[in-house]
Structure formats: C-alpha cells, structure tokens
Amino acid sequence: MSxxxxxLTAKSYAKAPIRDQASYEKKLEITRTYxxxxxxxxxxxxxxxxxxxxxxPYVAHIDAYDASGKLLEIAQSxxxxxxxxxxxxxxxxxxxxxLPDDGYDVVMAHSVLHLLADKExxxxxxxxxxxxxxxxxxxxxxxxxxxxxxxxxxQASRVLPxxxxxxxxxxxHLRRSMTDAGFRIDHDWAPNDEAVLFLVxxxxxxxxx
Length: 209
Fold this sequence. Notes:
By secondary structure, the protein is α/β, with parallel strands linked by helices. The protein is built from seven helices and seven strands; from the N terminus they run H-H-E-H-E-H-E-E-H-E-H-H-E-E. The protein has helices at residues 4-15, 21-32, 50-55, 69-82, 119-129, 150-157, 171-180, and strands at 40-44, 61-66, 87-91, 104-110, 130-141, 184-189, 196-202.
C-alpha cells in the first residue's frame, strides 16, 4: 500500500477537526461496551493515535500499527503528551506482518478495509488473530454507495503513485465479507445514513480451528 499521500498530508490531517464529532463519540462509546481492563487490543491503521489514546484507559495494552511514518510521529507525540503508557506504536504494513493466532481480544480497523487490495485475506487473518469470543470493530467507507466521481477516482488510484488503491463495495457486500470470514455481526450502524458502515463483529466462542 502506498503511504505517500498520508505522509504528505499528515500534518494537515492532524490539525483538521473531526467531520462528524457526534458520530465519532458514539463509535467510541459503543466500542467501550466491549472492552475490559484485562484485554489486549490491536489497532490496524491507527493514524495519529486518537482512537487508541481514547480507549487506552479501558484495556491492558494496545498495539497500534500504521504504515505511515509521518502519521506515527504525530501519534507518538500525542501518546507522550497524554501520558499513556500502554500503547505500543509500530510502523507496519499489516498486510505483510505476521499476526499471532489467538493473540488479541479486540482488533480495530477504522477507514482501512476499502484501502486493501484483498480485504478477504485480511479479514481471515484478523479472525485468526482474535481469541475465541473476540471482537473486530471497524468503520468503513462503502464508496460504491457514494455519489459523485468516486468510481473514476478509485480507478485512477490504482495507477497513481501517491494514493493507495481504493476499492469500491457497498454495505451489503461488506456485511457478507464479514460473515463469510466466520464472524457474527453483533452491532451494525450507519451514521446519518451515509456510506460509512460501523460494525462490531464477533468471533464465536467455540470457533473452528
């Protein structure tokens, strides 16, 4: 995945206000209903670290991965300023790094799945790295349901060196991808009826090996 765009825009992205603060706060609130003090969490695509910092007081440890070094520099600064000691930041292309089987209680991936060339393989890896009964929390832009020139932009992104290759799919497609991977969808919410889909998907307690 190309990170050039994220590296170039990291500072401006960090300064920009959250577009829908109320929806963001609701996602945090929903996620926290699944968290416990003994949990180990993996966040894929942690960006500037805001979500990891927000959840850190509620869990034992968070591994926060991102492929953009510039975003991680900002995340490291924010973690230090917040005085948080249970977040481990790492520059990682998560599509290539090994993930431990049954290694985490929770995996989070926000604004990530539509940037993956093969999200089905990534979902299978997330399923394996979750402990039985673990949860996968995701917020994904389902660009196939957005108006405007997104299809043209998605096609262009596959040849432009600055941007990751954007994938077009709808909400129902994403839900099927989750269930096909073995997950049971436990919470399903589309903020303000937009193209964003927030899902909490559970790995069954007695998951097949």
